[in-house]
UniProtKB/TrEMBL annotation, chains A, B, C, D:
InterPro entries: Aquaporin-like, MIP, MIP/Aquaporin, MIP_CS. It catalyses: glycerol(in) = glycerol(out); urea(in) = urea(out); H2O(in) = H2O(out). It comes from Sparus aurata (Gilthead sea bream). Its main location: membrane. This is Aquaporin 10a. The chain crosses the membrane at residues 40-58, 64-82, 89-107, 145-162, 174-198, 225-248.
Length: 289, 289, 289, 289
């Protein structure tokens, strides 16, 4: 037990801590400087750099479960034991909480100066959106839900293919920056509606922090108790993206000619391939664009 | 037949779906937030990330035909059978259509809020340009045509060289991000006139979607039936770029010293080299800048 | 002695000179053009490119000690002899000073035109911030200190893991751009409060230059003698980040199965591993996200 | 003769044509859209993408002489025969001229709409700066000269080290994007004064085109016949940067332990090493930051 706690908590915690530290700091910097020291794009980019750094920091130890939605998808794929899912998620949540506290400490003066000391969720001087995500005013609940499902689905679909040797594998040592670019793409294209949390821990951790740090219960009650959307929708989206990957890509790949000696990079071993195998098409493969 | 349909439709469809999903979502985000959640550059970057992700997703299966103009060029080069061109293009078109529908679903509230519920092609609250491309007001028809020819030509010229082992090959595993950067470059430099479609499927798919989703026939009739330009010009530009590549680069490369054992990366085998071969110039090659 | 001076001074000097030349020039360009020829993000990016270029220039010779805070951390890790710390730092300082002088020469006309010939530290036409860093007006001293500690800690934590073969190593030849991206991330997320110096030499060198070039003693006395913060806090932060890396990552890594033949890439040899070793967890490693 | 003409003209021409096509198109797009379809940073990035694409297109054939200043430096280093310098430069000039003409054709409508049909060098509607570079109003002649010398020196210093195996070599297949990032860095930090031509061909080719296309002789006479600065200063800067590289880096590198079998990547063979050799410092090299 202690061993699992130690090996699980530490790096998972650190992973989300690192992502959150880069991302929320950038959000604080852009917000409190009223966009004079960065812009919306900076925040997207900083989250992306955080993902890259966090993956280099912990991928060798933990397998770099980006977030609870990704961990759940790996449970569904049979690559992670179900019993580990809850401690993983709690560690990820703890990391996000700690990072939020650190960002608050570092940007305390700036936040106080910006908000005039009044920590609110609404209005031009709101600062809650530095930490957790909130929907745009025009959003309906169902639309928010769809937005999170699609965003997380895109994430899973795009990262699952990177290690597949029978497709176009990315170089193993460069997977962190490539995943970072994908995250950047998603946050540039899917954050218009409700901030592209696509990660329950990334959203709940900071929200709990703002609850305890003085923003009040409004962080949970605002927008008609909207807070549950980025908790529930991303896991659903992640699993749906995983199945889409299996259906549209994985099951069309040819059987491996030679046994893979680096099983860490292949998903296929753990999954029964029910469908007909894909006929290798030489002319198709002879062109590579 | 069924086999070809399955192997062709699925990944091609997915490829364009992925590109379109990133790109059009970013366009929707930037447009409906009135550039507060991103800017013109974000849209370019999101399309570029979409291309990278789509290539990692499907390149191993399909050879990653970026778009019908690229597929046609490969037919001309003799690398793809002519009979496959039409089903490829239809799949690409279908993918673009499906992605547009998904973007519309996700950004429905935002689009309604931005446009006041009035889906138009002209005016400050127009939303049609989120999906398909439209020319600037000052453009003449011939100029639009030239713009698309030049843009697609640049694309083909720049991507054909990446896999050539006798020149400066890009690492095979990193071709997706490099192609993505080239697409980014083209959309930063060639979208001033009419939006750098350089892809018939990327333009017609969303345009058909907007026709069916409430923008009306104006999406086709506007700007004096301009819609045919991004359908006709990119294939012509792609083929011209291919021939420029053959004339200026390919035929100047030295004969391969050793037979290539990875024929997938070389174009030269399928083409007769009519011109005189290029004399290898040791001093020249000894400097590499 | 002469030999050490030559081998130490030249590349260290050059390293900081290169970083500063890119970064401060970009700051001068953005400032004097009143953000018409670039923006806050450009300055961040230019510093980042400077780090990449400087690492390619000198890493093979010096081991690319990014800054005195990093050098101190390596002394603490036992990888650099303590006696070399002072000459290293002085060389880094000299490089930053020389680069500032060069930037001043190149942008002299622009600075004079922008400031009206009045070189000041405060006010809308201040130009001192092109060279050294200054805090935002609302910052307290303690908060500035924390800001620098956290920023430098993030830097050390993120770069120490890049070469660790038992974790997820970055490709050795691509470490310069990856470190550059990390520096970009830190300057996008941690420069809101006081400019993310995270480097005593990068801050003191230019500050000394501005003292001698006509900005007067105000560059040291302003903001209640704030100048000592970026001198004292980054080394503390760097050492703290190093220990966090050791505690949370390094000591959890498995014992190396085979003896490393490339000891340059591993930190572990020089450190006794007091804690219990980490049990390799096959299921965890079998998934890599 | 014919053979040299063919091998020299074609790829050199194409190289500069490609760079110019990306860069000047982006400048046209940003300028004529009054920064609504891009910004200053887009132009920098497009030039950078152009450099990358051009290097992948032609580096295998020509050694990718970026510009006449770089070619001259290679002559000085003894790697290129002096007799080839003039045809190289003329080809580079021709490529830049042709690309400018193509950009003019593609953006003709936009330029006419923006300028009201009046092609001028001065004023708010000037369009000459789309093609060639012009100094800021406050610049003195000597300062412009220094600016170009420093910019080109930085370029040479930063790119010469990339292929040196005894230092930190960049991966040969990824040198094009790395050089592109360096060019991006220089254009973000050194274009405030007079546009960072750092390339005689890139400046004279478009200037000749604007002379012939209707901007009149003012493109040469304006700013007191300023046009000679980007012709004369970059070669001087390039040679100075090369010597700085030799003095500060190359002569400090250790003697190669084993004979290089890939002489294309090493500069050292062609240069006598007069100075004392550098003593390899094991502790230094054991840390790699």
């Amino acid at each position: 037990i202690r061993r699992i706690l130690r090996t699980v908590c530490t790096p998972y915690c650190l992973f989300n801590c690192c992502v959150q530290l880069f991302g929320c700091s950038a959000a604080a910097q852009v917000k409190t400087s009223r966009e004079t020291k960065g812009q919306f794009l900076s925040v997207n980019m900083a989250f992306s750099v955080g993902v890259m750094s966090a993956m280099y920091l912990t991928k060798g130890i933990t397998g770099a479960h980006l977030n609870p939605a990704v961990s759940l998808s790996f449970c569904v794929l049979g690559q992670v034991q179900w019993g580990r899912l809850v401690p993983y998620c709690l560690s990820q949540l703890l990391g996000a909480y700690v990072a939020s506290a650190l960002v608050y400490l570092v940007y305390y003066d700036a936040i106080m100066d910006f908000s005039g000391g009044d920590l609110t969720v609404y209005g031009p001087n709101e600062t809650a959106s530095i930490f957790a995500t909130y929907p745009s005013e025009y959003m309906t609940l169902g639309r928010s839900f769809l937005d999170q499902v699609v965003g997380t689905g895109m994430l899973m679909l795009c990262i699952l293919c990177l290690g597949e040797k029978r497709n176009t594998p990315a170089p193993a040592e460069l997977i962190p920056p490539i995943v970072a670019v994908i995250v950047l793409g998603i946050s540039m294209s899917m954050s218009g509606n409700c901030g592209a949390a696509i990660n329950p821990a990334r959203d709940l951790g900071p929200r709990l922090f703002t609850l305890t740090a003085g923003w009040g219960t409004e962080v949970f009650t605002c927008y008609d108790y909207w807070f549950w959307v980025p908790l529930v929708a991303p896991p659903i989206g992640g699993v749906m993206g995983t199945f889409m990957y299996l259906i549209f890509i994985e099951w069309h790949l040819p059987d491996p000619d030679q046994p893979d000696n680096d099983s860490a990079l292949s998903i296929s071993e753990t999954i029964k391939q029910p469908g007909p195998t894909w006929e290798k098409d030489v002319e198709l493969k002879s062109s590579h664009f």
